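pinging the channel bc i need a second pair of eyes. not urgent but kinda urgent?? the chain im working w is below, pasted from the shared doc
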Amino acid sequence: MKNIIPNLRSIIIVLIPYFFVMCHFKNKPDPISTTSTNKNLIEINIDEQDYDNTVLYSHLFKSVKLIALETNRNYLIGQIDEIELYNDTIYILDANIGKAIYVFDKNGGFINKIGRLGKGPGEYFRPKSFTIDKNTKQIKVLDESKLLIFSINGNFQKEIPLSHYDSPRYLKSVNGITYFDHQMFRGRTSSYLLSAIDSTGQILNQWLPYKEYNKGLTLPFGTKNHLVNTFYDIKFTQPFFDTIFSISNNDIKPFISISTKNNITIDEINDFNGLSDIREISNIYWKSKKFLGVKSYIENHNLIMFDFQNEGTTHTVFYNPKNKTFIFSKYMFMNDLIPMEGYYPFYAAYDNYFISVLEYRDTELKKLIENVNNGSILLSEKQLSVLKKLTPDSNPIIVFYECKNNLVFNQAK
């Protein structure tokens, strides 16, 4: 009996840490992968729509404002990859050339750069994406293997290692929660396309198994506007998706659902997955006559716009969330406010504006000034004088398109 009591004490001492650990993991919530339901889901059958519509910018926007970004050799922008606006301040990411985040005021005057190149604390090697959390007033920068967090004024606060996360490509943040868009690629270790972490880097949730939502595609398609900040929430989609999701309060639910009989098959997806040459992949993609999912998305108070690929053509959808009407366009809609060659995508929305970019080219600048002179575009004398001083070495122009307040589309079905 005397020998049993010491043995019991030894067993209890050994088991106490075990029970403590087990209780700790028992009380710790497991990440979930389910999505919530949405009783206000917008459902669109694209097989029933009339695409023979010509949609002009002047149908949607009531004014245009041009902001010429200040130019200096110390902050030349080689390429604009992402734009965010906060308190009338413009934040621009040049991920591949300048490899920096540049900050300009509402008139285009340069303020500062966020962070710097390097491998030390507060330094990034290659900034892939960035976001502004308006609730915590923080700027978050996604580097190759870490998340850097700065104050809204650009002061470095901390960094979170991301080496154990599976290839995050884009990010957005609300209320301190950071959401990652996981890019599709061969050899991925995660089964999910979207995840959320808290302010310490702890995974809160993971959603959307890639085999279900992008049909098992394992190739990285480099389209933009996958993860989009809106006034109300965050929207998320990826190539080959038939759904646009709404994210808020660590929850995700379908927002727009697209249905068609022209879905791509598993065999066709395998044809994509079996390729390695990007030219072959692009060739098959653009020649495909099947529904290839949503390509990009943007939203403000008065207008939702998104593109999808179907029957070998990019279609654009315009939707007014207030009166729940929409219209389809077979081709990219026409810019009659600033007639330019080529297509200029929207990068962001701010208040009642859609934000685009105009880069300097001799012929385009000439057309722009002609439209100003004939009254097609209304600019102040100050803005016009700025345009006339632009050179091929100038930083881009940020274009603010102001949406009309009472858009009505008559094609809803």
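so DSSP finds seven helices and 27 strands in the chain. and Residues 41 and 114 are 39 Å apart (CA to CA). — does that match what u expected or am i reading it wrong
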